[in-house]
């Protein structure tokens, strides 16, 4: 997968970003167990589709389910990047999608996934 310039991972505080939308991941439905990866992928697909439907051009995502809910960070970052990349390949409404992490280790995982590794 070639890196798409519309997807840029950063380390920092998500609430300080000047974007059209910030996804709120406060929900216990992704607690892990069987099918959690598919639920996480569906979460990204739904969020991106809703954003496009509402005219959102720029959006940020936290590391959904990878913190307090314990979903493994590596697979979580890979799912986030894969689903986002799939979406922007077929929909040009979003000009910027920003996965945001609070720590350097997660930011590195996002960037590794963005490089295709």
Structural features:
single chain, 117 residues, alpha/beta, Leucine Aminopeptidase, subunit E, domain 1, 4-stranded parallel sheet, 3 helices, 4 strands, 12% strand, globular
Concise account of the structure shown:
This protein has 117 residues and is of the alpha/beta class.
Question: Can you tell me about this structure?
Answer:
With 117 residues, the chain is α/β, with parallel strands linked by helices. The chain contains 3 helices and 4 strands; from the N terminus they run ββαβαβα. The protein has a 4-stranded parallel beta sheet with strand order 1-4-3-2. β3, α2 and β4 (96-101) form a beta-alpha-beta unit. α2 (73-90) crosses α3. The radius of gyration is 13 Å and the shape is globular. The model has no long low-confidence stretch (mean pLDDT 87).
